[in-house]
Amino acid sequence: MREHNAKVQEKVQHFKCFIHNMRNLHKHLRSACIKQTKGMDRLLYCKKLATAIRTRVRLELTRLRKLLRGDELYLARARETVTNVLDCFSGSHDRCKHKSVFCTAHLKGHSTRYLPYGKIVVLSAADKQQLQKVLDKYCGVQQLRDTVQLHNTNRCENMHSRLFSYASKSMVWKRSFTALCYSATLGASVGRGLSLLQFAERCGINIEASDPMYRYAMFTQNIARYHSDRKQKHEYKTSRYLSHRKRE
Asked: Are 97 and 81 in contact (CB under 8 A)?
């Protein structure tokens, strides 16, 4: 895929784990050098503040992803939402109505218990700039684009494995690369049988319910669903565990 990308300038996007990105954000927020608030332990305050920011960013992005299905619209709103978090924590809720989907400052039961020591965060200009720099590093435009689907590591690696299998470096041409990637992602989303029917429909092939191709696609879909459901049962997991124990 790298050779194909360099030759035909086809953009190849690699998704990254959203959970790991949030962990890195939390780690660097904790280590950010902010001044100690009077009467409060600095390390504990930084830990609580980092946890509050990470939780708020995660909730904002996950809720925003459910509301906005378009990637470009989501990226634009997500960037505005992240930049508004520190202002919201500082007690400035002027832009929360338009840039936040989680702020509850307009409600009567609003509470600041989620903030460090339950109080509004008071930051100097230097401290705010330091924290904003960390947010820009891990929630910038490129980072949000890499985690646009909010997938965890298993989902990302599973998708990459499918794409590498369908569009391997030795069997890729420009005219078929997009179709192969589309087929791989569609198969991972709805199943092999339904993806085959939808892909044929996009190509202009009219398939009737009585056609052998339709029956084969539904047979493949049902078999895959059966095995997927079987692997989720407790009996299957127990047998797999016992078989591994016997091998050891």
From this structure: no
